[in-house]
Design a protein that fits this description.
This protein is an alpha/beta fold. It is built from seven helices and 25 strands. The chain has a six-stranded mixed beta sheet. A five-stranded parallel beta sheet has the order 9-16-10-11-12. The protein has a five-stranded mixed beta sheet with strand order 20-18-25-22-23, with no helix packed on it. Helix 5 links the parallel strand 11 and strand 12.
Length: about 425
C-alpha cells in the first residue's frame, strides 16, 4: 500500500505542472501515466508555436514537454508509467486508487486527486458518416502519430473533415511529406481553428477550405476509395442534390475533442454539459471535495500554455486542501447571453477571490463587444473585447474581492455588441 498527499493521473503538460506545483506548495506527490514516457500528446506535436506565453520562446511540442519533464525530475518526484487506474474508492479522509502495471496491482491512498487525463478525438461513427469500414480513415491525432512518431504515411490523396487546429496542422504536414490534400471540409459556416492556423497551414499552401460542407459517405472495401461530400443547410443537415464523389485513399477527421472524465464521473463529479469537464470553483476543485481538474480534461484549451497554467492552479490548491480541509460557501457563475461556456462555474466566497482566472468562449462570431459580469441588474465588471470567435478562448484575470458578494446566490457573465 502506497500513501501520498496528492495523486495526479496523467503525465501530460497539465499533470506535470500540477505535480510540480503541488510539491512546490509542500505536498507529497505521486503521478500515474498510462504511457511509457511522460509528456502526453505533445510528444508527437513537432510543429512550433508552443511556450510563447509560459516561457517567452517558440518551442516545438516535445521541447515544451521536456521543460516540464525536467522540472518534474528536478523536484525529485516519482511517476508510475505504463500504469492504468482501474478503480477509485472514496474514503473518509481521501481516496483509495487501484492501479495496474506490468509489476502487478498497486493500491494508493491519497488525500487529494487531480485527474489530468486530457481529451480523446471524435471518430467517424460519432459524426454519423455512413458506409463500410475500410482502412484509410484516421483521426487527425492518429495520422499525426503515424507520420511524426512512426515515420509512416497514412495515405497520399487526402480529404480532411473538420477545420480544428489539429486537422489544419495535419493538412500542412501531409503536404510537406508529399501527399495531396484535396481540401478541408467544415460543416459549420465558420472555421473551427485559430485564424493563424488557417493562414499558416492552408493559405500558405493553397489548400482550399470548404465551409458548410461535410462527408456523408465513405466508399471502399479493404481500402478507402472515395468519399461523398455534400453541402449543408443552416441546421447543418446535408442538402439533397449537392452530393459529389471525391476519389481519395485517406480521410482525416478533425471533428472535435471530448474531455476524458470517466474516472471523475465514477466518483460522482458533476459534469458541465457545455465543457464536458467538471464543474469547478476558482481553485479548480470539483463538486466532490478533494477532486481537482485541469488542462483539457477541464475544458478544451487553445494553447498548451493555459493547460499548464490550470495545472499549476490545481496543484497548489490540492496541496492546500490536504493541509486544511475547509468548508466551502459556493455561488454560481453562470454563462449568460452569447457565452458558450465559462470556467470556473462556481466561486467560493470564503476564499480570497482577488485574482481569479476566468476562461470563456463565445457562442457566435461578434465584433465590437463588451464582456460583463452582473449581479442581477447590477454590473460588477466589464471589459471591451474587439472581437470574439468561438474557436478562440478568452482569458481574463478578475478581482472578485472588489465586489460585495454577501447574500449573493449567483452571478451571470454575458457578451454584448456595442457601437464601435
Amino acid at each position: 500500500m502506497r500513501r501520498t498527499d496528492v495523486l495526479v493521473i496523467g503525465g501530460g503538460p497539465a499533470g506535470l505542472a500540477a505535480a510540480v506545483s503541488a510539491e512546490k506548495h509542500g505536498a507529497d506527490v505521486l503521478l500515474i501515466e498510462r504511457e511509457r514516457r511522460l509528456g502526453g500528446i505533445l510528444k508527437q506535436c513537432i510543429h512550433d508555436g508552443f511556450g510563447l506565453i509560459r516561457f517567452g520562446e517558440k518551442l516545438s511540442g516535445p521541447e515544451y514537454a521536456e521543460k516540464w519533464v525536467d522540472a518534474f525530475h528536478e523536484a525529485g518526484l516519482t511517476a508510475l508509467t505504463s500504469t492504468f487506474v482501474t478503480q477509485i474508492d472514496k474514503k473518509e479522509n481521501g481516496f483509495l486508487v487501484h492501479a495496474v502495471s506490468r509489476q502487478g496491482v498497486d493500491h494508493i491512498e491519497t488525500g487529494a486527486l487531480i485527474p489530468a487525463t486530457g481529451c480523446r478525438e471524435r471518430t467517424a461513427r460519432q459524426v454519423n458518416i455512413h458506409g463500410t469500414r475500410p482502412a484509410g480513415v484516421f483521426t487527425a491525432g492518429t495520422a499525426q502519430h503515424f507520420i511524426n512518431l512512426l515515420g509512416e504515411m497514412p495515405g497520399h490523396r487526402c480529404v480532411i473533415l473538420g477545420s480544428g487546429d489539429i486537422g489544419l496542422i495535419m493538412a500542412r504536414r501531409l503536404t510537406l511529406e508529399g501527399a495531396e490534400v484535396i481540401g478541408v471540409y467544415e460543416v459549420k459556416p465558420t472555421p473551427s481553428g485559430l485564424r493563424r492556423n488557417i493562414h499558416q497551414c492552408l493559405d500558405d499552401y493553397d489548400i482550399p477550405l470548404y465551409l458548410s460542407h461535410t462527408v456523408t459517405r465513405v466508399f471502399g472495401h479493404d481500402r478507402l476509395e472515395a468519399v461523398e461530400i455534400a453541402r449543408v443547410d443552416e441546421k447543418m443537415r446535408p442538402i439533397h442534390g449537392t452530393e459529389q464523389r471525391i476519389e481519395c485513399d485517406t480521410l482525416i477527421l478533425s471533428v472535435g475533442l471530448i474531455p476524458e472524465n470517466e474516472l471523475a464521473e465514477r466518483l460522482g463529479v458533476q459534469i458541465d454539459p457545455h465543457t464536458r469537464g467538471p464543474v469547478c470553483d476558482e481553485n479548480l476543485m470539483s463538486s466532490v471535495p478533494g477532486v481537482f481538474s485541469c488542462g483539457n480534461a477541464l475544458h478544451v484549451n487553445d494553447l498548451v500554455d493555459y493547460v499548464s497554467e490550470s495545472g499549476e492552479t490545481a496543484g497548489a490548491a490540492a496541496a492546500a486542501y490536504v493541509r486544511e480541509k475547509k468548508e466551502r460557501d459556493l455561488i454560481v457563475l453562470k454563462a449568460g447571453k452569447e457565452i458558450g461556456y465559462i470556467v470556473p462555474q462556481q466561486l467560493d466566497v470564503k476564499e480570497n477571490l482577488k485574482d481569479v482566472m476566468v476562461y470563456f468562449r463565445s457562442r457566435n462570431v461578434l465584433d465590437h463587444t463588451v464582456f460583463r459580469i452582473r449581479n442581477g441588474e447590477k454590473v460588477l465588471y466589464e471589459k471591451k473585447i474587439p472581437f470574439v470567435r468561438p474557436p478562440e478562448m478568452q482569458r481574463l484575470k478578475i478581482d472578485f474581492s472588489a465586489f460585495d458578494l454577501r447574500e449573493t446566490d449567483s452571478l451571470e457573465a454575458e457578451i454584448e455588441v456595442v457601437p464601435s
